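fwd from M.: "can u put these together and see what the complex looks like"

so here's what she sent:
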Amino acid sequence: MPRRPDLHSVCLIGSGPIVIGQACEFDYAGSQALKVLRAEGFRTIVCNSNPATIMTDPGFADRTYLEPLDLEGVAGVLERERPDALLPTLGGQTALNLASELAGRGILDALGIELIGAGVEVIRRAEDRERFRETVLSVGLRVPESRIVTAAEDVPEGLAFPLVLRPAFTLGGHGGGIAWTPEELEPRLYRALAESPVGQVLVEEYLAGWDEFELEVIRDSRDNVVVVCSIENLDPMGVHTGDSVTVAPQMTLPDEAYQELRNAAAAIVRAVGVECGGSNIQFARERETGEVRVIEMNPRVSRSSALASKATGYPIAKVAAKLAVGYTLDEIPNDLTGTTPASFEPTLDYVVVKFPRFAFDKFPGADPTLGTQMKSVGETMGIGRTFSEAFLKAMRSRELDGVPAGPWATLDLLPDGVHPWFRGELAAAAAELDRVRALDDLVKADWERLKRAGWSDAEIAARAGAPEAEARAKRLAAGVRPVYRAVDSCAAEVEAASNYLYSTWGERDEGARPREGASVVILGSGPNRIGQGIEFDYCCVHAARSFRELGYDAVMVNCNPETVSTDYDTSDRLYFEPLDVEAVLELCARERPAGVAIQLGGQTPLKLARALEAAGERILGTPFDAIDLAEDRERFGALCDRLGIAVPPWAMATGPEEAAAAAERIGYPVLARPSYVLGGRRMRVCYAAEDVRAAVEPGERILVDRFLEGALELDVDALCDGEETYVAAVMEHVEEAGVHSGDSSCVLPPISLAPGELARVRDVVRRLAPALGVVGLVNVQLALVRGEAFVLEANPRASRTVPFASKAIGVNLVDAACRLMAGARLADLALPDEGAPSQVSVKAAVFPFARFPGADPVLGPEMRSTGEVMASAGDFPTAFAKAERAAGRPLPAGGRAFLSVADGDKAAAVGLARRLAEVGFTLLATTGTAAALAQAGIPVARVRKVSEPGDDATVVDLVRRGRCDLVVNTPAGSGARSDGYRIREAALVARVPCVTTLAGAAAAVEAIAGAGRDEALSLQERVAAGTG
Amino acid sequence: MRGFLLLEDGTRFDGRSVGAPGVAVGEAVFTTAMSGYQEVVTDPSFAEQLVCFTAAMVGNYGVEAARSESDRPHARGVLMRRAGGEAWTRWLADHGIVALDEVDTRSLVLHLRAKGAMRAALVAGEASVPALLARIRAEPTMAGRALAGGVSTREPYVVGRGSVRVAVLDFGCKRSIVGRLLAAGAEVHVFPHSATAEEVLAAAPDGAVASNGPGDPAALTAETGLVRELVGRVPLLGICLGHQLLAQALGLRTFKLRFGHRGANHPVLELASGRVLVTAQNHGFAVEGAGAEVTHVSLYDGTVEGLELPGERARSVQFHPEAGPGPHDARPLVDGWVEELRYAAAA
């Protein structure tokens, strides 16, 4: 059946900010779908609060709304746009839940909007536990049996042991456990009930140790079902699939067992009633008996389907979008082959392994044990011709900072329960490496064997105790080079014009050698992690478009399967490779590019810059020396001195004692920070010598600089052609200095700067950028103290704020930067004046604290947010209130506000408390804060801290019982954890807005007091109105 | 031990011997099925062939007697990128199968795709290339070869008891076909390829299956004759080679595909319903120029995938509805056919 003639406009809901479990895979899905829908002639409308997404770029849809993804936000857009249909299956759980809610409230019916892709009934059958169970049973399959228990005497019967107990509404499943025998059940149940604030425990058949498989299935309206990909988890059941190492295709099932899962998957999608689109089904299978349980089903595109698309070259989201508007599988051509239809199931002649990327180092105190709640922040994928090759590629693609730690840190420490077949293959690869003694002993055949097993030059060198460069030189001398093979979805059975490549060894290279000087190689940003996320992928994707427009072949290098950059549609050639020196040098040797773009992928490409330059590759735009100049504090300090630009007093020091002495000289408080850090890792504000000593490892070289307390921080994104500078965006942090720029909310244009101050800031950036040698993008962070501008740091590359700034000012900064890198002058670009946009845009960060019980949910110099949202309005309070809503922290209109602030903040808290009272809040405070407020004549009720004796309710009790609507809690200097931490954790669990800085609290109060109700405007309208 | 594959055009692919020593000569073909390696190697349709697996890892889950599609391996040689398990390679060696891994299988597939399936020799150990080439070129090509006789049962036999009696003409029949018929409740009478129509009809079958098998259907004159004699006298179901024989019996011609269809992911359009079946396939020849009798076509290259002559109560499919290995989408074709026989028998 062809495209439905009755549909003309389609609205797509995105997945909002990047959070753990919902990352840029939905940007990949959404932007693919938009391409298809536009090509089919639909008017497209997008709703997504995440500015760092490609799908929210003005060119990707007819109307783009950066509005909060809540009922009010989306309903407002739907009312305004009146699309014929809503497609909710490409925006993760967020979009699916919103669609259910919109339908449930009758909004879709009232507006005459059809839900396509998955209807309400389908969503309910898949998502409602009981209905899903019934559906699965109806086709003769089984789910893990479970009961909900609310009283200890209600010991469930008829369940097979062991059982897992999951108390409801506790952070990270705290209070849960496993009962191996009936005797253990009752006491465990009692404890679990006590831990659950609602006295509810789910008791479920425990399948730990069972193997876990996933199937990606597509069904069309003619009931055709194809399985796109099978995925096997290396971590057995019990570890969330998002945290598991996974492999595709499945490796350990005989055909009859695999077909059993295939049949089950088809039966389930049919029974659930998914009419057209992709679904993901998870199975547990007992290795010995072959018993199967259906774990869950997502009637939508998922993280796994993004992985499956990248693993097979089969664009699931694109096909799902076409199915949703009426096509059937036999009518949709396979992109890569062009001749076979989408009903051709991919077959792989390579292996794909996915690795999770964790960030436990960011959350000290959090438990790194993996369980049923996902904790990883990103992922990598490796493609190889054997399992071990793919595995080792994915493993080293993680870019772990420092010594590998955490799950799957090394090959010596495999988790329990890994299938012996995988262990055997990995042991065989390890044995190859173990045989290495000295590099000089290795002959060509040895090198080939090592490389074919998957080992990198760096790993071989480390084993031999030699530098990586030496290993590479010896390998090249032996004549051992990689070849590149295509991902074509058909194991070469059908001719395919694939541009999607991976490296392997000892085989023949495929395809014509690229013409010298024809391409630009764009280095991507690798796995998402805290401090380096989707923003940089946005930059890389735009760079690919720009360099194509400039007449080059855009060549993308990345190893992150979630991203738009690793969609083979994005570039002329995609190298799915680790972002390490070896991989990048080798592919550059094949490409012989006109240049390499390193300023768009965050910190990752910068780490490769020196080796690229040494190898004679041309770095486009800002040269390597500028990076070094900005990173080397001594060189940077001297440059600023010469330019007459103020920097906070600083010193380099080695080891704890030298650092403490330097801090004494500079004067407290100081900021202690290791060089070349991402996202402020291990950065600390120190108030005393012992803090400094604790912040520095013996022998570590560290930068100590004065921490400018109470300063106003600014983020500036600018373009420079080497001489002229365009100060594109000046963003003011809402939180005061000391909060990492990635975690602070920020506002554009700045709202607190005097006219002279803004001019001074622009002037500083205009002098600094050309002096650094920037050609392209530069980000400068400044602090304003009593009108004086201090430069905190300069990064001669695209920054995290580039997508936000581009959308707020209506200028595509990456495109401009690429043109500068290709040799244009700023004057050639016809950029609008540097003036301020008339709308106020606010960026707010979202945090994963709820995933890391034990880690203090407080803002500081170390970045911990995973994603961000954007909101725009006519004034700051409205924009800020909307941004908080979009970040999932809607501000209360009134009620009871609880305050507990550090001693240093008490004076400043008085003003805040007065404003809260004026706005209509009843005030509660802990002893010290209450005394300070009472003294200032503000009515306040004292509440007991947990550590204070007494019988009355503590603040934690009040928060837990929902008796608080807003919590303001600033952490006391350093070391104070106990009471403050318990308050913040209670607020986190009870989902009460909790502000940990006074500046943030002040902004919140202003937003509560002054937020208006602006009509949602699309990005296109704002740009057209010149307000962008 | 090292080894190599030498194609008749002189192209050579090196590898590591993981099976039996020696030299195997046959037609080099490839299959894209990702699981079911043991089924493939024991499928009689692979007789006199050297099978290259496109799947990167082969042998991962060992070997089990119940998975064999016949009583012995039929493929003469096996080529793999990586053999992933000792049980598998030991089994290959024990059965005298020459097998190499560490082969650049993708380049081999690209070569066969471009040049077509061709004669080749698989060598475990050393061998003189000119002598080997002479030996390869002395072998007959697959086109024109009648191979059913070498793989068919010698004596008729009966398996199962049921309300429906099905005769199976064994031209190299896979166990999965018999298994599928048994599962559908049939009593299965298996006949050798050389059986006469009278012998078959003497068993009073409610229906007859012309099985899969190796070689060129055009060379199977007697077998085509057998099928021709049965058409109209007993309901017929042809599978793979059996489909080609039925086509020939009806006066249609067959031709050799460049490199065949071998895999477990081939979409076939069922014309009557408009539905797509994902099928298991294993054939190097196909039926030419059929018309109204076509029921199924390949969505991969448009070739004929199924025929039906309602008046003659005869139908056939080019793919393998019994799977083994492969998806079960088309299994209802066999089950439904047996059901129809039962209904007709009862009427």
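replying to her w this: The two ends of chain B are 64 Å apart (CA to CA).
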